[in-house]
C-alpha cells in the first residue's frame, strides 16, 4: 500500500512529474541520445511547473475578486470548488480514491491500446478529482470495497479516453493539427461552445483580428488588453463595493492602485502560463512519437486546458467574461426552478470559460467565443446544482464539483448505480 500511495499521491497527482515521465519513456523508446532525453524530460517538467506557477499568480488575483463580488452584492449559496469537495470526499473514501486513481491510469493505457480512442490523459489533478467523484458517487449508491474499486477504475480509464476523443474534432480546429488533445474535465462545455460557434458564427471573424486605432494599437498585444480589461473590472467592482469592503483586500492602497496591481498580476499570470505552454508543446509532442510507436500506437497526449490559450489569447479574456455572465444569469434562474443557488466561482469560470472562448472562436469567431463561453457558464452552474443530490451527505457542505464533465459523469453514474444497486 505504501508503494501504491507513493505512485498515486507523489507521481500521478503531480502533473509535471507525470508529463516528464511520459517524455522520458517516449524519448528513451525512440533511442534518442542521453542529452536529448534529459533535455526533453526536464523541459517538459519545467514547462508544467511554469504553467502551474502562472496559474497560482492568476488565481491569487481572482481570489480577491470573487469574495469582493459576494460581499458587495450580499450573495449566499454553494460555491463549486473541486479542491474543497475532494478534501471532504477523502475523509470517507480516501483509500478508494487512491486505488481508483492508480488503476484508472492503467485502464486509460489499456483502453488507449485496444480501442480506437488513442489518448493518454496527463492532467494529474483532474484524474485525482474524477477518482474522488467516482468513489463518492459509487459509495453513496451502495458499492463498497473491491466492486467499487474495479467499477471506479474502469469508469475512470474510460472517461480519460472518451472526453479527449469527443473534444478532438473541435481541438483540431483550435490547433490546426492533431498532435495534442484536450485533457481537462470541462470538455462538455468546450464541445457546447464549439457547437454554438458553428451555429451562429463565422470562424473567419476571429477574436484575434479585432481592429484597433493607431492610438490603441498597443492593445493588439493580448497580455496588455487582458491587463487593461481586468484593471477596469477590479475598479468597477471596487466602486460598487465601497471603501469598507475593498479596504479588506486593498489594505492601505487606494482603489486605483489596488485595481492597477490586481490587473497587472492577473495579466502576469496569463503571460507565465503561455510561456509554460509553449515549452510543453515543444517537448511533449516529439516525445509522444516514441510512445505511439512502441507502447500505444498512434497515442496522443491529452493536456490541461491552458494548452489552448496560445492559439487565441483574445478569446481567453472574452471567454472568461462571458462565462461569468452566464453564471450570473444562471444564479437568478436556479432558485425559481427549485435548485440550489450556485454562486459563480472565479477560478472555474476563468479556466473553463477561457477555453470555451477559444473553442467557440475556432468554430464561430467573435460570436462563437462570446455565446459559446456564455453557454459554458450556464452549464457549470446547472450541472453542479443537479449533482448535489447525487453526492449524498457530501453535497451539503456549501461546495461541489465545478467543471462540466464532473456533473455529467456524476449524474449519469450516480443514477445508474442506484438503479442496479
UniProtKB/TrEMBL annotation:
<keyword id="KW-0762">Sugar transport</keyword>
<keyword id="KW-1133">Transmembrane helix</keyword>
<feature type="transmembrane region" description="Helical">
    <location>
        <begin position="371"/>
        <end position="392"/>
    </location>
</feature>
<keyword id="KW-1003">Cell membrane</keyword>
<dbReference type="GO" id="GO:0009401">
    <property type="term" value="P:phosphoenolpyruvate-dependent sugar phosphotransferase system"/>
</dbReference>
<keyword id="KW-0812">Transmembrane</keyword>
<feature type="transmembrane region" description="Helical">
    <location>
        <begin position="41"/>
        <end position="59"/>
    </location>
</feature>
<feature type="transmembrane region" description="Helical">
    <location>
        <begin position="254"/>
        <end position="274"/>
    </location>
</feature>
<comment type="function">
    <text>The phosphoenolpyruvate-dependent sugar phosphotransferase system (sugar PTS), a major carbohydrate active transport system, catalyzes the phosphorylation of incoming sugar substrates concomitantly with their translocation across the cell membrane. The enzyme II UlaABC PTS system is involved in ascorbate transport.</text>
</comment>
<dbReference type="Pfam" id="PF03611">
    <property type="entry name" value="EIIC-GAT"/>
</dbReference>
<feature type="transmembrane region" description="Helical">
    <location>
        <begin position="315"/>
        <end position="333"/>
    </location>
</feature>
<feature type="transmembrane region" description="Helical">
    <location>
        <begin position="223"/>
        <end position="242"/>
    </location>
</feature>
<keyword id="KW-0472">Membrane</keyword>
<comment type="similarity">
    <text>Belongs to the UlaA family.</text>
</comment>
<feature type="transmembrane region" description="Helical">
    <location>
        <begin position="339"/>
        <end position="359"/>
    </location>
</feature>
<dbReference type="InterPro" id="IPR051562">
    <property type="entry name" value="Ascorbate-PTS_EIIC"/>
</dbReference>
<comment type="subunit">
    <text>Homodimer.</text>
</comment>
<feature type="transmembrane region" description="Helical">
    <location>
        <begin position="146"/>
        <end position="166"/>
    </location>
</feature>
<dbReference type="InterPro" id="IPR004703">
    <property type="entry name" value="PTS_sugar-sp_permease"/>
</dbReference>
<keyword id="KW-0598">Phosphotransferase system</keyword>
<protein>
    <recommendedName>
        <fullName>Ascorbate-specific PTS system EIIC component</fullName>
    </recommendedName>
</protein>
<feature type="transmembrane region" description="Helical">
    <location>
        <begin position="6"/>
        <end position="29"/>
    </location>
</feature>
<keyword id="KW-0813">Transport</keyword>
<dbReference type="GO" id="GO:0005886">
    <property type="term" value="C:plasma membrane"/>
</dbReference>
<feature type="transmembrane region" description="Helical">
    <location>
        <begin position="119"/>
        <end position="140"/>
    </location>
</feature>
